[in-house]
Design a protein that fits this description.
Elements lengths: L17 E4 L5 H10 L4 E6 L13 E2 L2 E2 H6 L3 E5 L5 H10 L5 E4 L5 H4 L4 H7 L4 E6 L14 H8 L19 H23 L6 E6 H8 L3 H8 L16 E5 L5 E5 L3 H10 L14 H6 L1 H13 L3 H11 L3 E3 L3 H5 L2 H5 L3 E6 L3 E6 L23 H8 L4 H9 L4
Parallel strand pairs: 1-2, 1-6, 2-5, 6-7, 7-8
Antiparallel strand pairs: 3-4, 9-10, 10-11, 12-13
Helix pairs in contact: 1-7, 6-8, 7-8
């Protein structure tokens, strides 16, 4: 699907929402991008000459940062140095023109620049401020720097990843950033709804940490320890609460993931693999029993999987109503007939690379769909336009600011 097929900006549900994004790296920019996908106008601010550190993270093609182009899509980009007095003055003039400010400095940093909560409130009483940090705005660890994998480790998430006989494992993507970005977008929408529905509601300050976001996603970990004293350990690819549930190697050397924890699904599986007797075996008759005896159950399932190619297994499982699927890599995903049919990808023109493909907007909305209209901006590409239209600065004033490296 091309971006032109996805409807006009006026039809997008967040059209009119204005966000000033001074956050860096991933979590904060993800939050604003999720909203930009549905029509919010987002201005991304970077340091002149340096830019956001995300630009330096691989992968790159001919020097162009590929990660950046997705994480900051649908945004306009300006440069501004908030540490300089001229930059602070521009920031003061910009704040009243926006509904939302997103930042991820350590607690107190904006205060040092002269932009405390009270001052921001004076500049714009209705301003919603999303503050993303590693550990939160309060607490004894608030001032510590925090990155995704550190937060994943502190929250208890990493302790669950890996096998019991090996060290805990970090996955190959900073999932805490993505999860926190989603919570950030939700927080902004909650604050917007409050302003819309309550006449006495004005600004809001959202205190969101990477650690809290990952902790919330672990659901039962806290209540399990509180009520049962259980500290859940690593179990590799094997589920600790459902069985059978593991990753198995097929005859054609593909990894196949399966979960047949629901009793009717397991019953169908036993007939598929020619072992209906398992339903009468007390070691496998119930899900708790199967979890307890997962190793023995895997020894029964593995040979059946290993004797068949993945396409054959998929066909059989679909026929018999059993859940399972291939462990896809990026190439598999890119060429997936299912994802292509659902328009899960979009091709968009990039000023540096030409046509590029990236994930399309989710969720899919019927009446007011989201839209991808641009990749992440080049450094400062919209600075002159924003300063001249929003603040009515002259060409001479803009040139003067640029000569002082304020923009």
């Amino acid at each position: 699907m091309t971006n032109a097929e996805n409807g006009g900006d006026q039809n997008q549900p967040l059209h009119g929402l204005k966000i000033l994004d001074i956050s860096t790296m991933i979590a904060g920019p993800v939050a604003s991008t999720l909203l930009a996908d549905f029509g919010a106008e987002v201005i991304k601010v970077e340091l002149p000459g340096v830019g956001d550190s995300l630009r330096q993270l691989p992968p790159h093609k001919e020097g162009a940062p590929l990660w950046w182009k997705v994480t900051n899509r649908n945004k306009k980009g300006i440069t501004l140095d908030l540490r300089k007095e001229e930059g602070k003055e521009i920031f003061r003039r910009l704040i009243p023109k926006f509904d939302v400010l997103t930042e991820n400095f350590r607690p107190g940093t904006l205060d040092k620049y002269g932009f405390s909560r009270e001052i921001l409130k004076e500049l714009n009483p209705d301003l919603i401020i999303l503050r993303i940090t590693g550990y939160g705005q309060t607490g004894p660890m608030a001032s510590r720097p925090g990155f995704a994998r550190i937060a994943e480790a502190y929250s208890g998430f990493t302790a669950l990843c890996g096998t019991p006989d090996r060290p805990p494992m970090h996955i190959g993507y900073p999932i805490a950033d993505g999860v926190t970005g989603m919570f950030g977008a939700i927080g902004i929408l909650i604050a917007c709804f409050r302003q819309k529905t309550r006449k006495d509601a004005h600004g809001e300050e959202i205190d969101l940490s990477l650690v809290d976001s990952m902790l919330r996603m672990l659901e039962f970990s806290v209540i399990e320890y509180d009520q049962l004293g259980v500290v859940r350990e690593r179990s590799g690819n094997r589920s600790q609460y459902a069985g059978p549930s593991n990753v198995y190697l097929t005859k054609d050397q593909r990894w196949f993931s399966m979960s047949a924890s629901a009793q009717p699904v397991f019953a169908r599986l036993t007939h598929t693999i020619g072992r209906p007797d398992l339903l009468e075996n007390p070691n496998f008759a119930t899900n708790p029993a199967r979890v307890k005896n997962a190793g023995a159950l895997d020894d029964i399932i593995k040979p059946w999987i290993a004797d068949r190619n993945i396409d054959d297994i998929m066909e059989i499982f679909e026929r018999d109503g059993i859940s399972g699927g291939p462990v896809n890599d990026a190439a598999d995903v890119f060429h997936s007939e299912h994802l292509r049919e659902r328009n899960s990808f979009i091709e968009i023109e990039d000023s540096e690379l030409g046509p590029v493909t990236m994930q399309n907007v989710i969720p899919i909305m019927t009446e007011a769909p989201g839209k991808v209209h641009s990749t992440g901006p080049t450094l400062g590409q919209d600075t002159d336009d924003i300063l001249s239209t929003m603040l009515e600065l002259t060409d001479a004033e803009i040139a003067d600011l640029r000569s002082k490296n304020v923009i």
